[in-house]
Design brief:
The complex is a heterodimer of chains A (about 800) and B (about 300).
Chain A: H1 2-14, H2 17-34, E1 51-55, E2 58-62, H3 83-117, H4 123-136, H5 139-147, H6 150-156, H7 159-170, H8 173-187, H9 190-197, H10 202-238, E3 247-248, E4 256-257, H11 262-268, H12 279-307, H13 312-324, H14 326-334, H15 340-357, H16 370-380, H17 399-410, E5 413-414, E6 420-440, E7 446-449, E8 455-457, E9 463-472, H18 478-484, H19 486-490, E10 492-497, H20 503-517, E11 521-525, E12 548-552, H21 554-563, E13 566-589, E14 599-606, H22 621-639, E15 647-653, H23 662-671, E16 677-683, E17 693-697, H24 706-721, E18 725-728, H25 734-738, E19 744-751, H26 770-788
Parallel strand pairs in A: 9-10, 10-11, 11-12, 14-15, 14-16, 16-19, 17-18
Antiparallel strand pairs in A: 1-2, 3-4, 5-13, 6-7, 6-13, 8-12, 9-13, 13-15, 17-19
Helix pairs in contact in A: 2-3, 2-12, 3-7, 3-8, 3-10, 4-8, 5-7, 8-10, 10-11, 10-12, 11-12, 16-22, 16-26, 17-22, 22-26, 24-26
Chain B: H1 4-29, E1 36-39, E2 42-45, H2 49-64, H3 77-110, H4 119-130, H5 134-150, H6 164-195, H7 197-205, H8 209-246, H9 252-261, H10 265-301
Antiparallel strand pairs in B: 1-2
Helix pairs in contact in B: 1-2, 1-10, 3-6, 3-10, 4-6, 5-6, 5-8, 6-8, 7-8, 8-10, 9-10
Classes of the chains: A alpha/beta (about 800), B mainly alpha (about 300).
GO cellular component, one term (chain B): plasma membrane
Pfam family, one (chain B): BPD_transp_1
InterPro entries (chain B): MetI-like, MetI-like_sf
C-alpha cells in the first residue's frame, strides 16, 4: 500500500501542473466564448430599470447600478445590465481579438527576426529602434491617439479592427527581439553548418530548418503574447477605448453597443471606480486576470513540455501534417494490410469531419405556411383599404373585419366578448399633399421643394397662401419687435434656423411667438438631411395649433437662406376627423396550466397603416406582413393542436400612432391593477426580402426574468436554424409603452433594413417575399412552442 | 580621450533620442480628421501632408530651443510640466526602489538554490502574480483604503497628491507588478548561479549557505538583474498611466491624458517626450549601475 502511494505521489509530481491548470482555464474560457448561453441564464442586453420594488411591505426605489446581491451575483452596470452576463458574453470578442493581435504580431515579427538574425541590412536597427520607440512611448497612448484618426476609422470601419491593427503593428517588436535570440541560438547549432555545406541557401535554411525548430517556441510565445495583449486591453479599457463594434440603432433611434467586451466594461466603470461601485471595475479586471493567468500558465506549461527530452507534444505536432495528409492516406489505403489501424483511425476522423459539415438541417415538425402568410399580406395591402389609416376605413369592409374573419376561420377564440376591441380616438388626420415654392422677388423665378423629401408638414389643417419670407434671428431687438409689431410678423412666413440655436433660445422664441404673434406660417430649418424616398411619418407640433409648421431639411434650408428676400407659396391639403372608432382585434389560444392562469404571452402587431397621399401610395407592407405572420402562427398552433401552458393572445392594434391607441385601451380594459405577468412580443415590420437580419430589442426585459431570458436564448437558436442573424438595437413602438412595467416585459422585433423602405412608397408587396416570411414565422413559431408548450408535441 | 567606438555609440543614442522625439511629435501632429478620399481615381488626403510636417517641425524646433510655450488653457507649459514631472519622478523612483528590494528578496526565496523540488509550484508562484492586471491591483488597493477610511483609519489617502499619505497607495500599486518581474529574474539568475562551478566549489569548501548566497551568488546575479531592468521600465511607465489615472494623482501621465482629452495636440506631444525621457534616463542609470558593479567586481577579482 505504501509502495502504491509512493508511486502515485511520484506520478503526481511528474504531472505538468502549469500545463494542467492552464488547460483547464483555457477550456473554461473557450467554452465561455463559444457557448456563453450555458454559463449564464440572462442575455447581456436585458436591463433592470429605475422602478419601485416592494420588499418586506416597503416600497424601495431601485436605481441601477445595483450592487451584487442574490439575483445578480456580480451586480449590474449603470444601465441595469447583469455584469455576470456581460463578462461571459464579452469573453468572445475580447479573447478572439487578443488571439488575433498575438497572431498578427507573430506574423510580422517572424520574418523580420529571421532577416535580423541573417544580418540583413537595417533590420536589426529597425527592430531595436521600434523596441525603444514603443518602450518609451507607451503603446496604449499611441493606440488611443491613432485610433481617433479618421483614416483608420475610414479604412477599418469598426473600432475592433482599428484597435487590433494598431496593437498589432505597433507592438510586435518585443516578440521580434525574443525570436531573434532564439534564431541566433539555432543558427549557432552545428547542423546549420552542415546545411550550408550541402548548398542550401538562406531561404531554404529558414524554411526547412529554422522555422521547424522554432515551432515550439512560436507556440509558447503565441500564448504568452496573448496574455500580454490582454494586459494591454485592460489598460486601454480604463481609458475608454471600446472594442465592441460601436453602437447600432433602429431607424433614427438611440443605439446600444452591439457587442460586449471586457475593455468596454472597464471603460464604463471609470465613472464608478471609487466607493460602493468599485465592483464595476473589480469583476471585469478579475476576468482579465483569470484569462491572463490561463494563457501564461498554459504557455509556461508548454515550454516545460517542449523542453523535455522525450516530449510527446513535439512528436504529436510533427506527426499532425502527416496524419492529415490525404496523399498519405491514399498510400496507406493502397497498402491497407500494413496500415490497417492507421487507415481505420484516419477514415473515422474524416467521416466525423464530413458528418459535422454535412449534418442534415433541422426541420421543424410545425410547418409554417409562408404562402398563406404572403396571401394575407397581399390582401391587407390591397387598395381597398387605402393604406389602412385609422379612422379612414369603411365601417363594414375594413382590415379589422378581415382579420376577424380569418381568426374565425382558423378557430381562434375571441379575447373578451368580441374579437373587435373598439375605442374612441379623439383625432386622426392625413396630410395628403403639400406644396412649398420659393419665389425670387427680383426675377420671379420659382423653385419648388419636394414634399416629404425636402420638407415635412407638422400641422394638420388645410392652408393656401403666398407670404413674404422673414428670417428670424435671435438678437437683442427681436422680442421687442415682435411684441411691438405682432401683425407684421403674423402675415409673414417666419424662417427660423434652429441648427445653431441653443435649446433655451428655441424654447423662449417658441413661447414668445405663440403668445404674442400667433403667426400663420413658421418654417424651421432643422438638421435632418434631404431624403431620397418620401418618408411619411406625420408628427404634429402641438405647440402652435393654428399655425402651419414646416420642417425643412438642412440642404433646403441653406437654399432658402441663400435666396434672401423671397416669397413662399404654401399649400397644405390635410384631412382631419374627430371622435372616430379605433378597431383593434384581440384573440387567444387558452393555456392549460392552472398555475399559469395569470401569465400571458401577447403577440402584438399593427393592423393600421399610414394612409395614402393624393399622389403616392403607402401600402406599409412590412406591417401587414407582421400581422400576417402573427395570424399564420395562430393558425398553425390551432391546426397542430398545440396546447400552450398559458394564454397566448394575438393582438392586432389599431390607432398605433395616436394617443388613444388600441394597446392602451386593451391595457386599461383587461390588465390594469390586476396581478398579471405579461410577456409582450411586438412584431414591427417583417418579411422584407432585402433583410437577412432581424433586429431585436430586449433591453426592457429584466436579466433575472428566467422565462423571458430562456425565450431569447431559444429565439437565437431558432434564428440560427432558419439561417437568420439576430442583431440588437433599441427600437420604438408605442404599444410597448403600455406593456413596460414591473409585471410586464416587452420584446420588440423588427427587420434590419435601410430607412429608405419603411414608411415610404417603396414599402410595397414587391419588397416582401415568402422566403423571409418563412424564416421569421418559423423561428417565432418554434420558439413559442419550445418555450410555452413544454416543448414539441410531435 | 573618448574612443571612436564610444563616440559612435553616444551619437547613435542621440540619434535614437532625436528620432523618438520627432516621431512622437509627428504622431500628435496628425489631426483627428485626417483621412484619404478617392477623387477621380486618385487618393487625396483630407489635410495637406506638408502642413502636418510643418506643424511637427515647429514643435520639434521649439522643444530643442526649450521654448515650451503655453497650453490651450493659456498656462505656461514649463511650469505645469515641472510640477507634474517631479511628482511622477518621485512616484517612479520610489516604486522602482521598492520593487527592486521586494523583488530581489522574493526572488531569492522563490529560487530553488540547487534544490529541484517543487519546480512546478515555483513556476506557478512566479507566473500567477505577474498575470494580475495593474487595474485590478489599483482597484483592490483603493477599495482597501476606502474600507480603512470607513473605519476611521486614515493611513492612506484614496486620491490626489500633496502629502506622503497620498503617495503611499500609488507607490505600492506601481511597485507590485515590477517586484514580481524582478523576483522572477532574480530567481532564474540565482538558480543559474547555483549551477556554476565556483558556487559548487564554495559549497564543497564548507561555506555557509548564507555566505554562498550573498558573497558568491548574489554578487554575480545582481548585474544580470540590473541588466534585466530596462525590460521592466516600459512596463512601469505604462502602469504609471493607470495608477495615476485611478488615484487621480496629478503626475505627468495624468497631465498627458488631460491634454489629450482637450485635444491640445502640441502640449500632448511635448508631454509624451518628457514621459519618454524617463525611459532613457532610467535605462542610462541602470547601465551606469551595472558598469559600476562590473568594475567593482573586477577590481575585487584582481
Amino acid at each position: 500500500m505504501k509502495k502504491l502511494n509512493m508511486s502515485l505521489l511520484k506520478n503526481i509530481k511528474k504531472i505538468n501542473i502549469p500545463l494542467l491548470i492552464g488547460s483547464i482555464i483555457l477550456i473554461f474560457i473557450f467554452g465561455m466564448c463559444l457557448y456563453p448561453e450555458y454559463f449564464t441564464e440572462a442575455d447581456p442586453y436585458g436591463r433592470e430599470r429605475t422602478q419601485y420594488k416592494y420588499e418586506n411591505g416597503k416600497s424601495i426605489l431601485v436605481i441601477p447600478p445595483i450592487p451584487p446581491n442574490d439575483e445578480y451575483p456580480l451586480g449590474t452596470d449603470h444601465r441595469g445590465r447583469d455584469l455576470k452576463s456581460l463578462i461571459i458574453y464579452g469573453s468572445k470578442l475580447t479573447i478572439f481579438s487578443a488571439l488575433t493581435v498575438a497572431l498578427i504580431r507573430l506574423i510580422i515579427a517572424l520574418p523580420l527576426s529571421i532577416a535580423a538574425a541573417y544580418k540583413v541590412r537595417f533590420t536589426n536597427g529597425f527592430i531595436n529602434f521600434f523596441n525603444i520607440m514603443f518602450s518609451a512611448f507607451p503603446l496604449i497612448i499611441a493606440v488611443i491617439v491613432l485610433s481617433n484618426i479618421a483614416l483608420f476609422q475610414d479604412i477599418f470601419k469598426d473600432a475592433t479592427y482599428v484597435n487590433i491593427f494598431l496593437l498589432s503593428v505597433l507592438g510586435w517588436s518585443r516578440l521580434s527581439h525574443i525570436l531573434r535570440t532564439k534564431i541566433d541560438e539555432i543558427l549557432m547549432q552545428d547542423f546549420i553548418e552542415g546545411e550550408v555545406a550541402i548548398g542550401k541557401n538562406k531561404l531554404e535554411i529558414a524554411v526547412q530548418n529554422i522555422i521547424p525548430h522554432l515551432i515550439p517556441s512560436i507556440i509558447v510565445l503565441f500564448f504568452l503574447e496573448t496574455a500580454m495583449v490582454l494586459l494591454s486591453f485592460s489598460q486601454l479599457g480604463v481609458f475608454g477605448l471600446v472594442f465592441g463594434s460601436g453602437y447600432e440603432g433602429a431607424t433614427g433611434e438611440v443605439g446600444v453597443p452591439i457587442e460586449f467586451d471586457w475593455p468596454s466594461l472597464l471603460s464604463l466603470s471609470k465613472y464608478f471606480y471609487r466607493g460602493d461601485y468599485s465592483y464595476l471595475s473589480i469583476y471585469p479586471a478579475i476576468a482579465f486576470a483569470f484569462a491572463i493567468i490561463g494563457f501564461n500558465t498554459f504557455g509556461e506549461g508548454l515550454k516545460i513540455e517542449f523542453e523535455k527530452e522525450n516530449s510527446r507534444v513535439i512528436t504529436f505536432i510533427r506527426a499532425m501534417p502527416s496524419f492529415l495528409s490525404p496523399i498519405r492516406l491514399i498510400y496507406e489505403i493502397k497498402n491497407y494490410k500494413q496500415y490497417k489501424r492507421s487507415v481505420l483511425g484516419k477514415v473515422g476522423f474524416y467521416i466525423t469531419i464530413l458528418l459535422i459539415i454535412f449534418c442534415p438541417k433541422y426541420e421543424s415538425p410545425y410547418g409554417f405556411d409562408e404562402n398563406n402568410a404572403f396571401k394575407i399580406t397581399k390582401e391587407l395591402t390591397d387598395d381597398i383599404f387605402k393604406g389602412r389609416l385609422t379612422g379612414f376605413q369603411d365601417k363594414d369592409n375594413n382590415p379589422a373585419q378581415y382579420i376577424v374573419n380569418k381568426l374565425k376561420e382558423y378557430g381562434v377564440k375571441a379575447y373578451g366578448d368580441d374579437y373587435i376591441l373598439e375605442n374612441t380616438i379623439q383625432e386622426v388626420f392625413n396630410i395628403k399633399y403639400a406644396e412649398l415654392s420659393m419665389i425670387d422677388t427680383k426675377t420671379f423665378s420659382e423653385k419648388k421643394l419636394k414634399f416629404r423629401q425636402d420638407y415635412i408638414v407638422a400641422s394638420n389643417f388645410n392652408y393656401d397662401g403666398i407670404l413674404d419670407a422673414e428670417n428670424i434671428e435671435i438678437n437683442d431687438g427681436i422680442f421687442e419687435n415682435m411684441a411691438n409689431e405682432p401683425d407684421y410678423y403674423k402675415e409673414k412666413a417666419l424662417i427660423i434656423d434652429i441648427r445653431s440655436m441653443t435649446q433655451k433660445d428655441f424654447i423662449s422664441l417658441n413661447g414668445f411667438m405663440k403668445y404674442y404673434v400667433q403667426p400663420n406660417v413658421v418654417i424651421f430649418i432643422e438638421n435632418w438631411k434631404q431624403q431620397e424616398a418620401r418618408y411619411k411619418s406625420d408628427i404634429i407640433n402641438k405647440n402652435m395649433e393654428d399655425t402651419v409648421i414646416i420642417s425643412l431639411s438642412s440642404e433646403a434650408g441653406d437654399e432658402l437662406l441663400r435666396m434672401g428676400k423671397c416669397k413662399l407659396k404654401i399649400s397644405v391639403n390635410a384631412e382631419k376627423r374627430n371622435d372616430v372608432i379605433g378597431r383593434s382585434v384581440v384573440a387567444y389560444i387558452p393555456g392549460i396550466d392552472e398555475s399559469k392562469k395569470n401569465d400571458f404571452v401577447i403577440i402584438g402587431s399593427n393592423l393600421d397603416g399610414i394612409g395614402y397621399d393624393l399622389d403616392e401610395k403607402y401600402p406599409s407592407a412590412g406591417r401587414a406582413s407582421s400581422a400576417a405572420i402573427s395570424l399564420e402562427i395562430a393558425r398553425t398552433l390551432i391546426q397542430n393542436e398545440v396546447k400552450p401552458d398559458r394564454d397566448i393572445i394575438f393582438a392586432f392594434w389599431d390607432g398605433n400612432m395616436t394617443d388613444d391607441r388600441g394597446s392602451k385601451s386593451f391595457f386599461y380594459k383587461y390588465l390594469i391593477n390586476r396581478n398579471y405577468r405579461i410577456f409582450y412580443i411586438d412584431l414591427m415590420n417583417l418579411g422584407y426580402k432585402s433583410s437577412d437580419k432581424l433586429m431585436i430589442d430586449n433591453t426592457k426585459i429584466f436579466p433575472n426574468s428566467k422565462e423571458e431570458q430562456d425565450f431569447i436564448k431559444r429565439l437565437k437558436k431558432n434564428a440560427k436554424r432558419n439561417d437568420f442573424e439576430l442583431v440588437y438595437g433599441t427600437l420604438y413602438s408605442p404599444a410597448v409603452i403600455d406593456f413596460t412595467g414591473s409585471d410586464s416585459q416587452p420584446l420588440l422585433i423588427d427587420s434590419f433594413i435601410s430607412n429608405e423602405i419603411v414608411h415610404t412608397p417603396k414599402d410595397t408587396l414587391e419588397e416582401i417575399d415568402t422566403h423571409s416570411i418563412k424564416q421569421v414565422g418559423q423561428m417565432l413559431l418554434d420558439t413559442l412552442i419550445d418555450s410555452f408548450s413544454g416543448g414539441s408535441n410531435k | 580621450m573618448l574612443g571612436q567606438r564610444t563616440i559612435r555609440k553616444i551619437l547613435s543614442k542621440v540619434l535614437v533620442l532625436f528620432a523618438f522625439t520627432y516621431i512622437s511629435i509627428f504622431i500628435f501632429s496628425i489631426p483627428y480628421g485626417y483621412s484619404w478620399e478617392i477623387i477621380d481615381g486618385r487618393f487625396v488626403s483630407t489635410y495637406p501632408l506638408y502642413m502636418i510636417f510643418k506643424r511637427c517641425n515647429s514643435t520639434f524646433i521649439s522643444l530643442l530651443e526649450l521654448n515650451l510655450g503655453y497650453n490651450i488653457k493659456g498656462k505656461a507649459l514649463n511650469k505645469v510640466l515641472f510640477t507634474s514631472f517631479m511628482r511622477t519622478a518621485l512616484l517612479l523612483s520610489s516604486s522602482i526602489v521598492l520593487a527592486f528590494v521586494l523583488g530581489v528578496f522574493k526572488g531569492i526565496s522563490d529560487s530553488n538554490r540547487g534544490n529541484k523540488n517543487n519546480v512546478f509550484a515555483k513556476i506557478l508562484i512566479s507566473v500567477i502574480p505577474i498575470s494580475i492586471p495593474d487595474v485590478l491591483i489599483a482597484a483592490i488597493m483603493q477599495s482597501f483604503a476606502i474600507w480603512l477610511n470607513q473605519r476611521d483609519i486614515h493611513i492612506f489617502k484614496v486620491a490626489g497628491a500633496g502629502t506622503l499619505a497620498h503617495s503611499f497607495l500609488p507607490i505600492i500599486s506601481l511597485s507590485i507588478l515590477p517586484a514580481f518581474y524582478i523576483a522572477r529574474i532574480t530567481s532564474l539568475e540565482v538558480n543559474d548561479c547555483y549551477k556554476k562551478a565556483y558556487v559548487l566549489t564554495a559549497l564543497g569548501k564548507g561555506c555557509s549557505s548564507k555566505r554562498v548566497l550573498w558573497n558568491h551568488v548574489m554578487r554575480n546575479a545582481i548585474k544580470s538583474i540590473i541588466e534585466g531592468l530596462p525590460n521592466i521600465t516600459s512596463m512601469i511607465i505604462s502602469n504609471t498611466l493607470i495608477v495615476e489615472y485611478m488615484f487621480s494623482y496629478p503626475g505627468l501621465t495624468t497631465l498627458l491624458m488631460d491634454h489629450i482629452a482637450i485635444a491640445d495636440r502640441r502640449s500632448s506631444a511635448i508631454i509624451i517626450v518628457f514621459i519618454g525621457s524617463f525611459y532613457f534616463i532610467l535605462n542610462g542609470l541602470y547601465r551606469c549601475i551595472s558598469t559600476l558593479f562590473n568594475r567593482s567586481n573586477r577590481r575585487e577579482a584582481v
